[in-house]
Model the fold of this input.
Amino acid sequence: MRFTSLVIELIRARPRLVVWIVVLLQAAMWLFVALVFYRSPPGNLATLLAFGREYQVGTGLGPPLAFWLADIAYRAAGSHMIGVYVLAELCEIATFIALYHLARAVVGTQQAVLAVLLTMTVLAFSSPALDFGPMVLARPLWALLLLHSWQLIGQRRGNAWFAWSIAAGLLLLTTPAAIGLLLLLVIFAVATEGGRRTLRALDPIYALVVVAVLALPYAIWLMRAETLTMPALPQVEDLKARAINTTWLFGGLVLGAAAIPVLTFLNTSWFAGKTEDAPIIYRPPVEPLARNFVYFFALAPGLAAVLISGLFGLDRVAGGAGVVLVMSGLAVIVAAGDLIAMRRARVLRTVWAAAVAAPAAGVVLAVLLMPWTGTGEISTSMPARAISDFFDDSFARRTNQRLRAVAGETQLASLIALHSGRPHLLIDAEPQRTPWFTPARFSETGGVVVWRASDTAGTPPPEIAKRFPGIVPEVPRAFEWLVNGRQPLLRIGWAIVRPKGS
Done:
């Protein structure tokens, strides 16, 4: 009697259900990690929220859409980070659902599930899950843009132009890399007969008008801010270092997609039993235009981003690895052929689940074990709520006014800016980055200046003492980490700048 795995049967009979189950389980896994093991936001998320609460049309960090959405989610959740974490996972879900619909149009419903499963292993290692920002928001917008582009070029669905223009406009409001991504779409459309046929209509003109209207406010800000300048090209003596940086960036992309060749190798006939009758996942033949579309957007964005980032000395891939690798899983499925034999399904399931869960497991192990080694600190283990409450209450008791601004070390100041009162953030080392609150205004309204305390007296670092002459340091405040282990307590030096007239 032949036995077929229940998962394989579900892929055959209910492919959409399988996609929703695995995507929602991954989102639930990361939300569980955040609720249990995160006491402060990961990465630069706290700073992003401090920028977002100002609702600027543009900042030095880039287009504004991700900052606005993060602040809206934070306020909607009652000034709790869970709102932003849910927003990040909604972006993750939207990315995979858009990819599933694109893959279904190219390789059919059954193999579309395999494309999503492979892509989940890639994004798990190559892009942040909870550190919401432009790179996270750009993933679903780019996936939607690819879906609508294929509907226009491959399926000749003229009614997709409006959705395409909305996705393109929002992508321009999300990441500076949007211009390059849109240029790649234009190149593919011009280079193929199907694309040229699509561009001959009047609809593209109307779509460009919609895109221009959406991006116009940010474009005006760019022109007024005089930031529309090309980065300086490297000098001849810098070319070797830039080439090494390019190699490292390319290696990072390859490493992020490492689970795909592992799963492919385990599914070869070398590991199949002699008597094994492997179930087959079938698809209709893929037309040449669809094959070219998938291969082009699986390779071109990554190669272009690596070359640009390496040339200009960027420390990460332009646009984000999660954006440029979003088509990698579908490209492997297209190359695999019309019939994909699922050999040793149990082993494949185990390896796939390990690849998807490994980043979350790594976060948990780091939080629990690293404090005992004393080799470093985990930023997400900082007690953000206790820190913000203490300094907000201290300022209110000393001045009988609410805290309006915070300055000093940006990481600590950003955590205090998360308080429900939402004081303004002043990056005093680079005040041009926070034009909404100048040092002069800080001296008028007063605020709190914070830094990492290096002694029991709380002596401020020389650069902070220079920027805030006359401040009187208070006794440093010690805070416990989520797991203290062998590392010392988090000691924060601080001083109050009193409001004028108080």
